Amino acid sequence: MTMPLSRATISGSSCLRALFLPCFIALLLTVLAPVQGTASTSAQLGTFLEMKQRELDMLNSTERSIADAADQRLEEARTEYTAIKQQFGETLLTQRLSLAYPIEGRAMSRQLESMETRLRRTAESLRGISEQAAVRRDRLSSATTRDIAPAGSLPPDMQTLVEAYARQTAALRSRLDSQQEKADSQLKQATALLEKITAKRIEREAGLAASWQDYFFRNKEPLLSVELWKQPGSLPLWLSIRTASLMQELLIIKERAISAVLLSLFVLALAAAGGIPMLRAGLRAQQPAPELAARLHRAGFIGSLGFAMVFTDMRIFGGAAPAFSVFCWFLFGLGVLMGSNAVRKLVLPDFINISKAPVAWLFLIGGAILVSEMPGKLVVPLWTSTLVLFMAYMIRGHRRANPGPLALNVWFWMGIIFMLLAVAGYGRFSAFLCMFWFTAYVAYGVSAGLLAVLGRSMQSLPDEGGFVMVKGLVMGTASPLIWTGSTALGFYWLYQFLGEGILRSVGDLAISWQGFSLRFASVLVLAMLFYVARACVLLARGALDRMALRWPREQRGTALSLKTMATYGIWGLYGLVGLNILGVSLTSLTVVAGGLSVGIGFGMQTIFNNFFSGLILLFGRSIQQGDIIQVDNLWCVVRTISIRATVVETFDNASLIIPNSQLVTSQVTNWTKNNATIRRDMLVGVAYGSDTELVRQTLLRVASENPFVLPHPAPAVIFNDFGASSLDFILRVWINDIDNSLRALSDLRFAVDKAFREANIEIAFPQMDLHIRSAPGLQQVQAAPVMAAPETKA
What we know:
Elements: H1 2-97, H2 102-139, H3 145-148, H4 156-217, H5 226-229, H6 235-255, H7 257-282, H8 290-317, H9 322-347, H10 357-371, H11 376-401, H12 410-423, H13 427-459, H14 466-498, H15 500-507, E1 510-513, E2 516-519, H16 520-548, H17 556-581, H18 586-603, H19 605-620, E3 628-631, E4 634-641, E5 645-650, E6 655-659, H20 660-665, E7 668-670, E8 678-686, H21 692-705, E9 716-722, E10 727-735, H22 741-758, H23 778-783
Antiparallel strand pairs: 1-2, 3-4, 3-7, 4-5, 5-6, 8-10, 9-10
Helix pairs in contact: 1-2, 1-4, 2-4, 4-15, 7-8, 8-9, 9-10, 9-13, 10-11, 10-13, 11-12, 11-13, 12-13, 13-14, 14-15, 14-16, 16-17, 21-22
Domain Mechanosensitive ion channel MscS C-terminal: 684-763
Main location: membrane
Organism: Desulfovibrio psychrotolerans
């Protein structure tokens, strides 16, 4: 017993030693943990401070480069501000010294507008510098050394790092604060100057309308009037003033020539890179003659050069060179007209092309007359002589190109109008109208040329599948966009030449009557919305046509009804928007309509009945476009369901207009309401004694061989009756489409006749034996001797 106890004791002591060792290690770690934690925290803080110091050094390096760039931008903004301020002072001085000519006023207005644009860019740059400085400053900590680590809380080396970090951060914040203050100070000055320039520009624009009116209609003396030549104004003095003004304009062009040339070349390259591939892609299928191809390239170059110069004049000169601006628009318009005529001649071989170069020269001469502020006694004879030469060219060119009547040419009549105005003494106004008409003609030429190229390129696409949708989408969208863009181009020239004030005055022109005012601007917006609404209608109809191609035949009438409803819906929305634009109160309109509803209801009862019946037909879809219906004994096809009436077409190709109320209130048979299949019975009579089973099999075989007869439901043969002279059968078949019913029955009759002949089945026909029992004189006829036939001699 002793040995077992000793072994147990030894085993227990071993277990105690094994448990003591882990406990001792855990206690030792617990005692030493704070010391190790303190050492670890100090090491981590040192590492963190070193890392933040490196980040601050990188930030300082980056901030120096950013600050240098910001200082450079500030210096550029200060220089730009000084230049604009000096130019503004010169413009004010010029305004005080100049006469009340609208050309000078418009040039000053455009210069003010250019200064305003430049100053806005400068203000935006200054605002950006200030905001960037504020953002970078907010990223920096605003804590001081005491806030980060109070004195004595860190070792000396770490305390030194913290103090250096705080000093560098404070210096960087101070530099950013100084930069923001400079930007804010310059921004305040720029904003104040911008307000002055804007106010002065608005003041100039407001007075331009009256100035142009006085310029166009002042000293209006007829050409043959003696008073015309007595008008004040020295021609040598005017010539000297214009020469000095032209030299000043040439000096401005010379100062900015390098920037203008570089910008013009860049825009010219872009126009050529985009226009030439588009023209070639649109006229891919055409093979122009060498002469026409050369004309196209020449027109493209002139038009692109003119466009580049117009863009350069707008961006570089800003209206400081009115004569240069007129020349730029002259080049652009000449190129557009040449290109448009060449493209239309290529696409439409019958197009009569008369050179429009003299028209462009009219624009240039008229612009020179207006820009030079020529005296009235020189304007009237010079402009009249120019128009006489133009009319002579028109008559000669028309006789050579087209022997038809010259009265069909719109420029002939416009030339007569311009000449009459000039002879009456309105030379300046006549010149301006000619320039405006030329600009409108250029806008029309742009639209006509682009649409001709687009239409020719769309014709190369097949009329099937998704191409139909693509063609409808492109033409429906591109047409209003092109016309809107060309119209905007014309109005942009009008804005550049006359100014914003006169456009606003023209837009505010109104016709007032009984408290209702109709503004010209509202009419213009309505005209633009009309094209937008028409484009939406074309898009909706094209999309529904594309969707209907995937539908079964019996459901395609739904697409036609949906197209009608979409058309009425879009135009109805256009009407509501138009009333709102015109200023018509819908509430007042509702009140008036409510008051007149009783009288209108009695007086127009039939019209309203047809109107609501049309809505019932469209939404109820009991009758759809394309359905075959039967009204009384008339079979017809529904072609159009409108609000008032429904147009149907008989099988004799006669169109009938049926009021919608008649279709709603009377009985109408719709043969294609659910589907286009139809059951037809064909009567067949065979002679007595025929094999009826053979007749049945023959009829079924003939029916199964017909391509228009449906296999399901299967054809059936019915022994209908024992007729007076025939065995009557009915061949009952289902035809796949009601349009094929007549042809199917005809083919079946041909096939039955042929099959019966081959099977020796006789088709019966009525036969009658006549027995005469009694009649007056019958006995004498029976008793009379039979006459012998005459002998024939050999």
